[in-house]
Amino acid sequence: MADDTPNSIGMCDDQNTIQVSLTGIERTKEIISQACVDGMISLAVELLSANKELCAQNVRWLDHEGEEMSTPPIFIGIDYGHVELVSNLLPLHYGGAIDTMRAGCGDYTALEWACWVGSLNTVRILVEEGGAKVTEDAMVLARDEGHSTVVDYLQQHVDWYAGLEGDADAMMEKACREGDLEKVKQLVDVENYNIEQWKGEDGTCIDLAPMYSAVRNGHVELIQYFGEKGMQLN
């Protein structure tokens, strides 16, 4: 009878341990993946709690259309709409990890993936329980996919002006583009933003004026406000 111990096939005990360990990890990933697809909360949480490093590692799974994906496990729960599973997995993603972790396909954050899917409940949980940062990219994904209820919710939490501190012109441009009347009023009426700088010699707004972003995007209230301030928008 042939001896099939690790040493007989040219492997030392340490090498064999590594091989078994790697095989075990891959099998664990498979089980976690299937548990997340099926919404098996207890099993998924138990395995990921015991192998926390796998929370941010990609696992392979099939979406509803049979296409193979490669993402961290929580993305599976998001994609399949397992809201309770996502909620139970969130405590394993601490220290801002929910924002830094990326999907292997498309480089999306968990929140961006949820916005693309369009599940308002999942988006709420990621933001309110997981502390996920609402970004403009997340807004764009939800808007492009026609998820209006998600867009309405995100608008209450997004910081359109992150990184624009001290640049009043950039903030005015962003406020006009997004239809943020309150921000425009704050800039003009409270912070004394000089809208007159955007007038030409004939008294009308020059072509590069940020106010035209309001016109292009159909923000009627903003257009009316600027009209009351004496800004003529052609």
Automatic annotation (TrEMBL):
Coiled coil: none annotated. Gene3D superfamilies: Ankyrin repeat-containing domain. It holds the Pfam family Ank_2. This is Uncharacterized protein.
